[in-house]
Design brief:
Blueprint (H helix, E strand, L loop, with lengths): L8 E5 L3 H7 L4 H22 L3 E8 L7 H20 L1 H6 L1 E6 L7 H14 L5 E9 L1 H17 L10 H6 L11 E4 L18 E4 L9 H12 L8
Parallel strand pairs: 1-2, 1-5, 2-4, 3-4, 5-6
Helix pairs in contact: 1-2, 2-3, 3-5
């Protein structure tokens, strides 16, 4: 592993829980539980490699249109696990700060309270950053940023000619973090599905056929190796 070329920030589109469940004769809910367990493993892998920022796409705004029973189960998983993350000894040991990206006001009150708990408990930490995108949509994020910038101009705190990339970045959910170096998607789909559209402008993209719950460390290392072998030019 080329230590000097380990990405600072990896973003993952965790896709394939339900298809994994169908393939192995499991209920969809069991696929989501296995997907949650896999995420804990991947967090450990990132720590092993010294990857400072991990951002995962857990639940999109479009996912709110799914079967109500499935959504209810997912919300239960989110609520339970945000409390667990807030108290997780590994989080405390490694100094990992947890941040949720998205329209949390669309989530049930109990989930919002669990998010608040986890974020408050990990707020002092700054060694590593673990971002979970829930009720997230990149177009909505950009629209919200545009509205915020427009309000600044209307209130006289910002001039139109001052608007540049840095200004836009400050109004995004990811304002505190560098753009992803690598975006990885599981399940064989080769699209970004409304995820970090502004931030991925110069990210390297990697797609694998493996369903998320079946994602192995060797698959993860292959993605890292692929990233290391690429020549990043940033348009130059």
């Amino acid at each position: 592993m080329l230590e000097d070329k380990v990405p600072r920030h990896i973003a993952i589109i965790m896709d394939g829980n339900r298809r994994f469940a169908r393939e192995f004769g499991l209920r969809p809910e069991e696929g989501h539980v296995k997907g949650k367990d896999k995420l804990e493993e991947v967090m450990e892998w990132c720590l092993d490699l010294g990857i400072k920022v991990l951002t995962v796409y857990a639940f999109s705004t479009e996912n709110l249109k799914r079967d109500p029973q499935e959504i209810e189960y997912l919300m239960h998983i989110f609520e339970e696990n945000f409390y667990k993350l807030g108290d997780d000894e590994r989080i405390q040991k490694h100094g990992i700060r947890l941040t949720v990206l998205g329209q949390r006001e669309l989530l049930p009150k109990k989930v919002q309270e669990a998010i608040d708990y986890a974020e408050a408990k990990t707020a002092p930490y700054s060694n590593y950053y673990y971002n979970i995108a829930i009720a997230y949509g990149s177009r909505q994020e950009i629209i919200q940023a545009i509205k915020g910038i427009a309000q600044e101009v209307k209130d006289g705190r910002l001039k139109v000619e001052q608007i540049d990339e840095d200004v836009v970045n400050k109004f995004l959910y990811t304002a505190e973090f560098p753009d992803p170096d690598l975006i990885l998607r599981t399940s064989g789909e080769e699209r970004v599905s409304n995820f970090l559209l502004w931030q991925l402008a110069y990210s390297e993209l990697y797609f694998t056929d493996v369903y998320w719950p079946g994602f192995r460390k060797v698959d993860f290392l292959r993605a890292i190796r692929s990233y290391q072998m690429r020549q990043r030019r940033f348009g130059k």
